[in-house]
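Researcher: Please predict.
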Amino acid sequence: MNKLNLVKQYVLTKYGRRFSSKEELQRFQQQKIKKQLSFVLRHSAFYREFYEDFQNELQENHWESLPIIDKSIMMNHFDDFNTVGIKMKRALEIAFEAERTRDFTAKIADISIGLSSGTSGNRGVFLVSDKEAEMWAGAVLAKLLPGSLIEKQKIAFFLRANNNLYSTTENGRITFQFFDLLDDFSTHIHRLNELKPTIIIAPPSMLRKLAEWQIEDKILIRPIKIVSVAEVLEDLDKRFIEKVFQQTLHQVYQCTEGFLAATCSHGTLHMNEDLVAVQKEYLDEEKGIFVPILTDFTRTTQPIIRYRLNDILIERKAPCPCGSHFLALERIDGRCDDLFYGFKKVGGDVGVLFPDFIRRAIMLASDHILEYKVTQKDLKTIEVKLKVNASSETVKEAVISEITKLWNQNRLVVPDIHFLPYDLIPSDKKRKRIENAMRGHFDGKIV
């Protein structure tokens, strides 16, 4: 590892990119994207062909008007998409072998290979060069470390799969230990008590389990910073984890497509607009609900230009006290796959409900709900799993009342609501408290 690249990116991220206005930030992005496009057109056969009819936009640097791509396009054209000549077949062989053996150190030359979790039903392959990993690590450490780079830290990182990318953060003063979510709980408990991490990074479902172990005295740890990753962070979990560990729970929005957002000192999640440009495809502009279209101007191995994610984000209306000009988010609401649908009472068309609407209905129903999962089975059926610390029948009646109220407010036919025991435990699969299990739905239209 070239530590100089890491340190340079750390210093640049933490001290060098302090934009005095949104306009200054946008000028910075324009310059970076122009340089990125110049590189991409020379080295990616896919983009050269894809932009063949957009020469005017390229010459004028009107990148905002270039055509949009998504994960399926990137994967279908993987061989010509990446700029280092790696073929999909070979990349998948290495990635699946790593998953099988749980040894994630293999590379092709200086390129690390990984798999996305595939929560949207379409697993992705991602490529990261050593230099990109070093720059990523510098940016992550600048945004996440509670102190300086020279202070000693012990990081416990819980994830489904390790990658050379993550271990890049380790150096002489920073100890990084990967905790495999496939390992049993007793192994985690033993290793945590032995490591006594100062920083914990994990999905909220795992963080909640750690909080329970802390209450039960199974673990005795005093982390100075806790970071939620990989899953939607629910208010129910956030409050519980913060209460147990007596600190603000921070959050990172990281996926195959890049290091997208991190919380500031006030706990507000800001998009990393010093690394990616964010365009908004609004689903509800008045409420600030949008799907992000990303352009990453730091990665060249697998270039991300005008890439539509499947995530639903909600922008923050009030300015953040930290003063950053980076886009602030109220929350990550879920995925487009997990919009709920219902028949309209008039006309028979199909209406849409955002995951946050469902989440709020459950939270309004009762303070006695400890855990829950709501699944739409079809247009007429909702399945609810509850873990409560009170009379279950009373809580169920309150849940039925709030869901009925929500559907009625949106002029939708109220579905049948079935209750099942709560039987979910943390695992290597991303937890989804709000899930649409129907097949064949898109943008409010059944197809």
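Model: Residues 339-446 form a domain with the GMP Synthetase; Chain A, domain 3 fold (CATH 3.30.300).
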